[in-house]
Amino acid sequence: MPHLLFRGLEAEKLQQISRPLVDELAKVCSCGRDNFTLECMNTTGVWEGEQVPSFPFVEVSWFERGDEVRDRFAEAVDRLVKTLGVPEFEIAFRTYEEKAYYIDGVRFDRYKG
User: DSSP assignment of 65-110, as one string?
Assistant: First the structure.
């Protein structure tokens, strides 16, 4: 956690920035690199009866860390994805509650690992 799900961006492109992205996000979140999951979804857009490229979109699922951290996180993702030649994309955050998140069947706020 955090989990970043990329749509409309090829895995080969994401690979190019994956290390610097995780390095920077780990600093922003004050957590280890191994806390991050990056995944690419293969999607096909449909518009007006035609297949079209999917609009680039990043969904971040995480435990809330406050406005300042969220803003810095979004800025880092934006800056690094744009180095791949992606002119425009959107980022949305999905926030999990510790009492509604389970690891190995144990509620996160009670999990001892």
Answer: --HHHHHHHHHHHHHHHHTTT----EEEEEEEPGGG-EETTEEGGG
Closest CA to 77 of 61, 89, 63: 89
The CA radius of gyration of the chain, in Å to the nearest whole number, is: 16
Q: Which amino acid, residue 59? A: E
pLDDT tens for residues 53-95? 999 999 999 999 999 999 999 999 999 999 999 999 999 999 9
The CB-side HSE value for 88 (13 A sphere, CA atoms) comes to 2
Q: Which residues pair with 47 in a beta bridge?
A: 50
- Residues 9-50 have pLDDT tens digits of 999 999 999 999 999 999 999 999 999 999 999 999 999 999
Burial 73-109 (b: 16+ CB within 10 A, else e): bbebbeebbeeeeeeebebeeeeeeeeeeeeeeeeee
Supply the pTM of this predicted model: 0.90
